[in-house]
Amino acid sequence: xxxxxxxxHFRPFIDALASSYDETGGExxxxxxxxxxxxxxxxxxxxxxxxxxxxxxxxxxxAGDLHQNEKGTAVNxxxxxxxxxxxxxxxxxxxxxxxxxxxDAMKYFSAMAxxxxxxxxxxxxxxxxxx
Length: 131
Hints:
The mean pLDDT is 94.
């Protein structure tokens, strides 16, 4: 399984990035967890009018940074769970060190992740394994 990264505030390239990941996944016959696309969806339909790149923003870098914050980490967790299990996380919250997200925000992250992952689950075609 490939874990798609996200674009950066200083270099928007999600279309090329997603295409490359999907092409590589297709060539290898493995699914791609569409994290970068989920981040872009979250920018387009943000939670409580958050600024773009809010899933990587920090106090030091409010316009976005290279790595995800606790919000982005929640998105990553829900998307990875959904892709690995084929199950909708349904907003089930979890406790983790550094998670300051509200239950409402966690439900939003879960829904955004599932919206992108679910269509990919039906597109996964098993590769014939040889022993």
